[in-house]
Amino acid sequence: MAGDALLRYAVVAAAALLIGAAVALAAAPLPGSDADREALFLVSTIDALLQGVYDGSVSFDELAGHGDLGIGCGDRLDGELVGVDGEWYLVRTDGRAYPTAGSAATPFAAATFFDPDMTVTIDEPMNLTALSGYLETVFPSRNLFYAIRLDGTFPQVVTRSVPIQEKPYPRLADVTANQTVFVFENVTGTAVGFWTPALAKGVNVPGYHLHFITGDRTGGGHLLDMTVAKGSVQLDATANLTMVLPPGGDFWTVDLSGNLSDDLEQVEK
To answer: Between 3.30.1330.80, 1.10.10.10, 3.20.20.380, 3.65.10.10, what CATH number should domain 31-269 receive?
Structure first.
């Protein structure tokens, strides 16, 4: 009898997983569709990444099918991912940007098809703090996602990347304690990324999360600080979220119930 009960439980559990997968597939917008163009496509969650879930689960080809602008990281944290104009790059610990595509996978990424709704002109020098505060004054709502693209000339940009990791994976805060920092001076370039509302805490980085790439697409990284002399910021307000969770591995057992705000602040700063 115990064996029969276990068998029935296994069948029911398997059926539930299949039904859940079917519902998720049916609900997800098709890549490149009108619905998909107005959605933020998110791979995994920031809280999972903070706790060392670094194995890639979505290929770069699949990610590119859901957006032409985005950010993220490489498999096992192998580089900072930057997507701009439909081209995707990984900035590794040598500071160089490497074009990426194909079956290589990302453990965490955010992408969207960039259709800007508003443009803000920058005609006087601003640092990252001042620019961030100013942009929030023009948001029509603080409860939406915003894709961001900043093109300009920069007296200085400070970025970082982290080295590829091996199991057992450390927490992300421990990895970034040994990050490689790059300083770019008097460059043109593009910062891309997202502003995420507080309602998505734990899913994505609340507030700004930006990556940078130089105008010649040869260098960049996770944006830590900058001064922009002049340029323009385009904003794409996005009300929809499509999230794809890893189909197995460390994600299935990681505890996502805690508050990781302190870890996130250390990682982002």
So the answer is: 3.30.1330.80
CA distance 9 to 17: 12
CA distances from 135 to 12, 191, 215 (A): 50, 14, 23
pLDDT digits (tens, 9 = 90+) for 5-23: 433 333 333 333 333 333 3
Which residue has 């309602």 as its token pair? 199
For residue 204, give both structure tokens.
Answer: 């994505």
| Alpha carbons 257 and 44: distance in angstroms, whole number | 15
Name the E strands within the chain: 39-43, 58-59, 69-73, 80-84, 87-91, 97-99, 105-106, 109-112, 118-122, 126-127, 145-161, 180-196, 207-214, 220-228, 230-238, 240-244
Rounded to two decimals, what is the model's pTM?
0.88
Phi, psi of 244 (to 5 degrees): -115, 120
Neighbours of 174 (CB within 10 A): 14
Query: What is the per-residue pLDDT across 98-120, written as a single tens digit (0 to 9) for each?
Result: 999 899 999 999 999 999 999 99
- The Cα 54–Cα 67 span in angstroms is 22
Q: Is 142 exposed, middle or buried (0-12, 13-18, 19+ CB in 10 A)?
A: exposed
CA dist 65 and 83 (Å) reads: 12
Q: Are 62 and 247 in contact (CB under 8 A)?
A: no
Q: Compute CA distances 111 → 85, 193, 194, 222, 251, whole Å.
A: 12, 8, 9, 15, 20
Any idea what the Cα angle at residue 165 is, between residues 68 and 73, rounded to 5°? 10
